[in-house]
Write a structure and sequence with these properties.
binds pyridoxal-5'-phosphate, single chain, 7-stranded mixed sheet, 14 helices, 13 strands, Aspartate Aminotransferase, domain 2, 4-stranded antiparallel sheet, alpha/beta, Aspartate Aminotransferase, domain 1
């Protein structure tokens, strides 16, 4: 089965499994796990932030960022299709008492003027005060879309000028760095905090990092414990992420090339394809569920997204031959 549903389906490689098997571990609640400590310090350096915290998932990293930078009753500004607004089980309301202000973007990319205007709430007892603006880079529902550099800095600078926290949901920041040639640190320059996922395109079995100022990370560490995310010898998991940071970032360019080749071939077959900027190929069509079922019967899996799109995601376990076969199968179903 060729599985293009998501880059979360990646499995650890034999070399990653060896790194995991050989990892040194300790009790991370005592901050004595050497592998986690190394991952947190390498991660912080890579992201250009003072400190980082290992979390089981990127959802928890995002939610800790919200919890540690806002107060219950605050409002936060997010893009309408963002993961924080749509795919985190309503956690901002449940865990942090936040109101979401959803601002529609273009392909998931917030317009700085619109985002900052939405954040500019009158100082009036009727309104929940704005506390934070979040961007998502790459933007998943936007098609794995990339934030332009000037858009990123306009939002970060505008948020800072208004005294707001700025957070980047960088679950796929690695893909953005690969596609733009800019470093991860440069992509989140000016952002107070950033979350990154280790278990998507990077191929680790689990884990994410939240990075930001030292005192903020200290607060997030307490909330992580509160949520039951204080794990013990979790260096076993961190070892996969640490291995991926040095061995799986460069190869993301292959995923992007395969997505581009797939999109080009599908466009030539007459499908309505959004040109991919990274590792996601979205097709717009009338009956996504029927196409998903038809393709699955032929040996290729992908996901229906909403009422009129399907998503095909390239990743560590997808080869050139898999792309060739997918093109043939979708050609026959056209
Ligand atoms: C997958 C994803 C997350 C959450 O990551 P998990 O590790 O699955 O919890 C957060 N943000 C974005 C943009 C994502 O795509």
């Amino acid at each position: 089965m060729i599985d293009l549903r998501s880059d979360t389906v990646t499995r650890p490689t034999p070399a990653m499994r060896r790194a995991i098997a050989e990892s040194l571990v300790g009790d991370d609640v005592y901050q004595e796990d050497p592998t986690i400590n190394q991952l947190e310090s390498e991660g912080a350096a890579l992201l250009g932030k003072e400190a980082a915290l290992f979390t089981p998932t990127c959802t928890m990293a995002n939610q800790l960022a919200l919890r540690a930078s806002t107060r219950p009753g605050d409002a936060i500004i997010v893009e309408s299709g963002s993961h924080i607004a749509n795919y985190e089980s309503g956690a901002p309301a449940m865990l942090s008492g936040l109101t979401l202000i959803r601002v529609p973007g273009d392909r998931g990319i917030l317009d700085p003027a619109a985002a900052l205007a939405a954040a500019a709430r009158p100082d009036d007892v009727h309104f929940a005060p704005s506390a934070l603006i979040a961007v998502e880079n790459t933007a998943n529902l936007g098609g794995g879309a990339l934030y332009p550099a000037d858009t990123l800095s306009a939002i970060a600078d505008g948020a800072a000028a208004m005294g707001l926290w700025s957070h980047c949901d960088g679950a796929r920041l690695w893909n953005a760095a690969s596609a733009t040639g800019r470093s991860e640190a440069a992509l989140v320059d000016g952002y107070a905090s950033v979350s990154v996922c280790l278990s998507k395109g990077l191929g680790a079995p689990a884990g994410a990092l939240l990075a930001g100022p030292r005192d903020f990370i200290k607060t997030a560490r307490r909330f992580r414990k509160m949520l039951g995310g204080g794990m013990r010898q979790a260096g076993i998991l961190a070892a996969g992420g640490l291995y991926a940071l040095s061995h799986h970032r460069a190869r993301l360019a292959d995923d992007h090339a395969r997505a581009a080749r797939l999109a080009e071939a599908l466009t030539a077959q007459g499908w309505d394809v959004q040109t991919p900027e990274t590792n996601m190929v979205y097709i717009t069509l009338d009956a996504p569920a029927a196409l998903v079922a038809g393709a699955q019967a032929q040996g290729v899996r992908f996901s229906a997204v909403g009422r009129d799109r399907v998503r095909l995601v390239t990743h560590l376990n997808i080869s050139d031959a898999d792309i060739t076969e997918t093109i043939a199968i979708l050609g026959a179903l056209r």
